[in-house]
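stage 2 :: seqdesign
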């Protein structure tokens, strides 16, 4: 009897499509279904059903054979963008009700996250030595909570000054709330404490992080537990693993809500870095064009840079996420005319109604409509032929909203839309490279729209090599397939360079014990868990900058040695400090990692002999080149053999995307089915192949 091979499944919910990547041995499945904004769980289950169909199994049969399911969701991001979270109440130390520990008279959190009348102060805080000043008056707490409830609070955050060093005040307040408003009552008030979300010594940063996490917590928990229940009902017995923005996964019960923000782009970066190492590409920019936005990043040694707070909707937060940035130009980004100039995004048509050419009632033109009109998309093969695109509807929308107001043809208007989004992306990548001091030699493209634009963007940037991959259309799902279960634990300290040696075991033992319990709950033997210890070191007089330095878990350590290592990182970023005394060791972080099943995918750098003569094609499509339509060769990706040379301009049609090869590039499929597009000259060829 043939031995059963386990299946691995990864699902990424985007703003427009929900992507799936699955493996059974060396067999790979990539699927796309529509995202269902009214209930993301429906799209999640539909994606699993598509994967099961690929393997000729029922959903129940597939789930029984599945060893791991990892899930990345945009629920948190959507909640923030749509302002759909609950009204939050907040308890702080007295005197900080307006500033929320910031320097402004009125915190920016009041702009959208908090309402007037939903913040109360109590006479307690923690000083710089970790000592409680004041006390928790239970009657004062009860009065504050009742007032917050009467004013409409449906969730509570407790953020007491200095609690990163000593959380007892926050814990005491939470205990009062739980005792007086127990969970079995309908009036129960879900309560988060700031020290449980962040160990930052910046009180404002810690508060805002906890607030944002609370804002998305309830809805996200309902969504994720519903998704887990749906697969359990169908036979899946293992924990659903949730993708975090730090490039790791954890079960639902051990996931902090705000850590899932931007998890899809982080997964793409994980996949890019693995492929970059395999292809010997040392410095590379990444380009992920989805239906709603474009996410950019890099594979380079930038994760060891000085860390600064992340900004989410105008609020700085303490979230351990990989260094990606989001731009406002995706396939569904809406084009418009402002003061005689075409603008694209950040508004998006999303999954519903989507671009005009979907025929679902949209009226405003998008990038996808423009690409269709120009011939960069085949109306008959979109989404593997499952969705036929309406060229004339796209033309009508572009005419009404773009070409008529500007007095130009619909085709020229569509070309200007495409050029605008290419320039947005090129400018974003240029700034990203400048900020991180990168010298990229290649550009990786993924997402449904990345391969269609990568040649044009690489040409604008002057980048020699551009790459697309067999899993590019579902690349974030592929990236999460490379992730392991990881938990972070952090203890606040306050250690200077002149302080005596520190016994790390005294600090890390309790964190190790907690990690062991958590990993046991995940189904892992604690003996097989690997650990990493880091010192979090920041500028004494600037709470916004810090760096984590890996240190040996060998017992005693001299603080000055860790601080000197951090100083070198600060110096490399142009931050000199005023001697070792200007730095402070502010936390110890323990990272626990347990390996999950990974697909045994082939890959790596394999030399491919490229044909001397270009491959021809009998299939042609009229594609706009900036001045008019030209007959352009079209190739089917699945029929290309490794090393067959394609001279641009050309189109390569894939199941879920179309790759455009510009007229200054040549392309080939390498031995592992990656598409390599190399720049050959700055001018069009005169070889008779155009």
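stage 2 :: out
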């Amino acid at each position: 009897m043939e031995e059963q091979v386990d299946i691995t499944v990864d699902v990424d919910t985007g703003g427009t499509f929900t992507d799936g990547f699955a493996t059974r041995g060396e067999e790979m499945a990539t699927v796309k279904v529509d995202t269902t904004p009214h209930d993301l769980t429906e799209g999640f289950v539909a994606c699993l059903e598509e994967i099961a169909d690929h393997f000729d199994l029922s959903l129940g049969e597939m789930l029984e054979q599945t060893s791991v399911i990892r899930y990345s969701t945009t629920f948190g991001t959507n909640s923030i963008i749509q302002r759909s979270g609950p009204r939050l109440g907040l308890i702080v130390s007295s005197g900080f009700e307006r500033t929320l520990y910031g320097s402004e008279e009125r915190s920016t959190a009041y702009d959208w996250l908090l309402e007037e009348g939903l913040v109360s102060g109590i006479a307690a805080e923690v000083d710089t030595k970790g000592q409680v000043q004041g006390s928790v008056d239970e009657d004062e707490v009860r009065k504050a909570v009742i007032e917050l409830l009467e004013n409409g609070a449906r969730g509570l955050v407790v953020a007491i000054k200095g609690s990163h060093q000593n959380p007892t005040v926050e814990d005491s307040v939470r205990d009062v709330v739980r005792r007086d408003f127990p969970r079995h009552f309908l009036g129960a008030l879900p309560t988060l404490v700031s020290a449980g979300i962040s160990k930052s010594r910046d009180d404002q940063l810690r508060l805002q992080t906890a607030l944002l996490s609370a804002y998305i917590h309830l809805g996200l928990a309902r969504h994720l537990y519903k998704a887990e229940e749906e697969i359990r009902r169908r036979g899946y017995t293992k924990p659903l693993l949730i993708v975090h923005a730090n490039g790791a996964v954890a079960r639902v019960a051990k996931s902090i809500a705000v850590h899932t923000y931007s998890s899809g782009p982080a997964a793409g970066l994980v996949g890019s870095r693995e492929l970059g190492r395999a292809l010997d590409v040392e410095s590379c920019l990444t380009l992920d064009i989805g239906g709603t936005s474009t996410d950019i990043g890099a594979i380079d040694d930038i994760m060891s840079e000085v860390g600064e707070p992340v900004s989410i909707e105008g609020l700085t937060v303490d979230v351990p996420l990989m260094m990606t940035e989001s731009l406002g130009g995706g396939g569904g980004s809406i084009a418009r005319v402002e003061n005689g100039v075409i603008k694209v995004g950040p508004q998006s048509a999303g999954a519903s109604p989507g671009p005009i050419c979907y025929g679902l009632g949209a009226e405003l033109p998008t990038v996808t409509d423009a690409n269709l009109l120009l011939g960069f998309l085949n109306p008959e093969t979109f989404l593997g032929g499952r969705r036929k695109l309406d060229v004339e509807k796209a033309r009508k929308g572009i005419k009404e909203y773009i070409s008529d107001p500007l007095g130009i043809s619909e085709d020229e208007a569509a070309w200007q839309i495409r050029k605008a989004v290419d320039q947005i992306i090129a400018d974003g990548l240029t700034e990203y490279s400048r900020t991180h001091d990168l010298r990229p030699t290649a550009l990786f493209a993924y997402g449904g729209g990345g391969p269609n634009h990568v040649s044009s963007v690489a040409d604008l940037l002057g980048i020699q090599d551009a790459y697309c991959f067999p899993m590019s259309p579902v690349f974030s799902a592929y990236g999460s397939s490379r992730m392991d279960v990881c938990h972070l634990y952090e203890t606040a300290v306050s250690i200077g360079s002149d302080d005596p040696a520190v016994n790390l075991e005294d600090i890390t033992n309790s964190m190790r014990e907690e990690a062991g319990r958590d990993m046991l709950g995940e189904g892992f033997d604690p003996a097989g868990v690997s650990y990493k210890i880091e010192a979090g070191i920041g500028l004494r007089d600037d709470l916004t900058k810090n760096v984590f330095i890996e240190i040996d878990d060998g017992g005693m350590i001299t603080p000055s040695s860790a601080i000197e290592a951090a100083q070198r990182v600060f110096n490399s970023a142009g931050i000199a400090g005023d001697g070792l005394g200007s730095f402070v060791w502010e936390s110890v972080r323990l990272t626990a990692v347990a390996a999950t099943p990974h697909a045994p995918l082939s890959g790596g750098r394999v030399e491919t002999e490229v044909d001397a003569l270009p491959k021809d094609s009998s299939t042609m499509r009229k594609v706009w080149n900036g001045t008019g339509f030209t007959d352009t060769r079209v190739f089917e990706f699945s029929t290309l053999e490794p090393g067959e040379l394609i001279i641009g301009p050309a189109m390569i049609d894939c199941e879920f995307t179309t790759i455009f090869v510009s007229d200054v590039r040549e392309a080939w499929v390498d031995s592992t089915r990656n598409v390599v597009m190399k720049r050959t000259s700055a001018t069009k060829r005169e070889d008779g192949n155009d």
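stage 3 :: structure notes
- The chain has 14 helices and 34 strands.
- Residues 682-690 have pLDDT under 50 and may be disordered.
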